[in-house]
Design goal:
The chain is an alpha+beta fold and about 180 residues long. The chain has a two-stranded antiparallel sheet. A two-stranded antiparallel ribbon has the order 3-4. Strands 5-6 form a two-stranded antiparallel sheet. The model has no long low-confidence stretch (mean pLDDT about 85). The protein is elongated, with a radius of gyration of 20 Å. It is built from 7 helices and 8 strands, in the order H-H-E-E-H-E-E-H-H-E-E-H-E-E-H. It folds into 2 domains: about 50 residues; about 120 residues, no CATH class.
Amino acid sequence: MVAQAVERLALADVVALHQDALRALDERAALERRLEPLNLLGELTLKPFESPFAAARTCYDHIAGTLGVELHDRLVALEWIRATGRNRTDYDLTKAGIDALERAGVDVTAVQARRRRFAFACLDWSERRPHLGGALGAALLDLALARRWVEQDLDSRSLEVTLRGRREMRARFGLHSS
C-alpha cells in the first residue's frame, strides 16, 4: 500500500515536471517570435537561452548544434556536396568539394572507402535543421579536433571552438558565427 502511494506521488511529480517543461518551451517559442522582427531588421540571429551545448557539440561522431548546421549549410551553398538518393537526404561530394576538402586535410578517398554511409542529413534536435552525418561528418570532426579548431569537453558532448578554429573555419568554409 505504501509502495502504491509512493508510485502515485512519483507519477504526479513526473506529470508536473512534463507540464512545466512544455510550458517553458511555449514561453521560449513566444519569446523567439517576439525577437524575430529584430533579427530581420538587424540581420542578426538572436537565440534566447542558447547554451554552449546547443552552439557546438557532437552527435555520435560528427559535429552538431549551431556549428554543425552552419557547416552543413555552407557545404551545400558552396556546392561541395549535393543531395542524392530517393529522399534527397544522402550526399555525394562534387569535384569542387573533393578538391576543397582535400586541401583542408580530409583524405576523401579513405573516407569514401569506409564501410559505412558516406554522408547524410542528420536532423539536429536543437536547430530543427540538418547537420552533416556519416563518414564525411566524422572526418570533418576528426580534422577539427586534430587541427585544434575545436576542443571537446571530456565530460559531455560539448565542443568549444578555439580562436584558431574561428579563423580557419571562416577562411576555409566561410563560417562567421563559429
